[in-house]
Design brief:
Layout lengths: L19 H11 L2 H16 L3 H11 L10 H10 L3 H15 L7 H18 L18 H6 L1
Helix pairs in contact: 2-3
């Protein structure tokens, strides 16, 4: 009788087991925040001098690529004539849904509390080894009411 060949599930072989995570880890260990700030500052200086590639690179990270298609001029005119504002609709609809369908939002506070607990635990477990200094004007605070009323 002939010996039966053992079945394999992965074809081929590899000389290493490196992953994207291994390369990303090496990158993060090598490039400091100060190094990265110098790269960004250089790109900003080049963009200000007219370097199209530097402008495109900065814009890619600061603005991002458009997700959707821009509305046609006719659509904009019709929305204006109807008094319709897509941004206001998008911001108001979640609040409207909470009032229209209160049972669907019964656990919203509970979910927000769980997210806050997870965020706090994550902040404790990941130490801030390196931070960048941000000017006060760039900081966003979550307590808008006290700033406007106080």
């Amino acid at each position: 009788m002939a010996k039966r060949k053992q079945q394999t599930f992965i074809k081929g072989s590899a000389t290493h087991r490196r992953t994207e995570g291994d390369y990303m880890s090496a990158l993060l260990e090598t490039v400091t925040l100060e190094d990265w700030q110098e790269v960004v500052s250089s790109a900003l200086a080049a963009a200000k001098q007219g370097d199209a590639q530097a402008r495109a690179w900065l814009a890619q990270y600061l603005v991002g690529k458009p997700v959707g298609k821009a509305p046609t001029p006719l659509t904009v005119v019709v929305q204006q004539l109807n008094g319709d504002n897509p941004l206001i609709n998008r911001l108001a609809n979640p609040v409207i849904d909470q009032y229209k369908y209160p049972d669907s939002h019964r656990n919203d506070a509970w979910e927000a509390q769980i997210k806050a607990l997870v965020a706090a635990e994550l902040a404790q477990k990941i130490p801030d080894l390196e931070t960048t200094q941000k000017p006060d004007s760039a900081r966003v605070t979550a307590n808008f009411d006290s700033e406007q009323n106080g």
